[in-house]
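Cross-check.
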Amino acid sequence: MHKSDLNSKRFIGTSLAVLSLSLYIIMLFTYTVFITTILLLGLIIVLPLIFIGLIRKDKNIIIRRVKASCWALGFLILILFPTFWLIPQQIYVRTHRQAELITPNAPAVEDFASEFLDEYSDFNSLTFKEKALAVSNFTTENIVWRLDFETYGMSGHVATPTECINRGTDDCQGQAVTMASLLLNLDFKYVWVVETPFHWYVLVRDPDKGALKQGWEKNVEVYQNSGEILTLNRNGGGSMPDWRLEEVVLIFNDKETLYPVGLLKAILIGWTGTAFFYGDIFPMFMTYEVIFLILGMFALAIPLAAWTYYMSPLDDSRRKEDRKQAGKKLFQRVIILGPLLFLVFLAWFFLQPIIWDYTLILAISEIGLLSVLASEAKFWKLIKVEKNN
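Predicted model, tokenized:
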């Protein structure tokens, strides 16, 4: 390869690394709770390899690993947000939540309210609680719960009430903001949307009881249990266990945004996924879906194989020599890393009841450990693969 071609290749690689890191940082600060946690946990995979390079005092491997780490963080963004072209719109909605997510006067909400009143013709004769529950039932019946990944192709998508009403589907977030907007349109005075690490729901208070005391958001559970505020859609429109009721990290409506906990604690709360994954994944082991799970591990092994080879401390001459057998070496690594990833997954799965509150950290840490091992030539020599390393 000519020197000019090599410099051009390095420039493209560096530019891509800077772009990936910039997008990672933007998304890190845009999403406050669960998504931010996953993004931060991505550092568990990349930082140990950089640290090992620093210990070795190898400038070339340090530069290589820093650059590749930025690529990996960009890859993480693509995994979470495949429809990445929606990211600018999502950033805007997140940073303008009061104006964009609580829209009682939007035409779509006005029409939604008219449909509601047509269905509940005796609405004005109902008690406060009956009215609130009627709104909750109507919203969840007309905004059918569906995963964001299925609807929008990205994790943590934040939809406006208009989008939800027009589509007739969204997850608990869309149901909550639509419900809150409908309540305000119907002249309910005290309405808030609540965000937790894994769920959004609505709080509403009887106006006859007057305003809540300042600082009430720091004791939400107390007010809920005493009946001072009514919880709507807390079960996401379906049956969910008690662990679903995570600590509140954000409360907002069209006038204010309240933070019951600090940003750092909000992120830490996101680490306590507990049975969220355990309960959802366990049934897969009992059906044919375990086949797709295994195939998924092999699919993940492909980028991991390329990643670990690139991160290996080989000199340029050796890498040039290995290019002739790149396909064979990549295939060998995938064949080995696929089952190992599945074993890592099993280890995480069965350790969850023991290390219950740190499931996300545990899962990412296991992948990080495998990444470190697979980036070492001694590992492949030990299992008698790539004997020439």
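Residues 273-389 form one domain. Strands lie at 144-145, 169-170, 190-195, 200-205, 230-232, 250-252, 257-258. Passed to J.P. for a second look.
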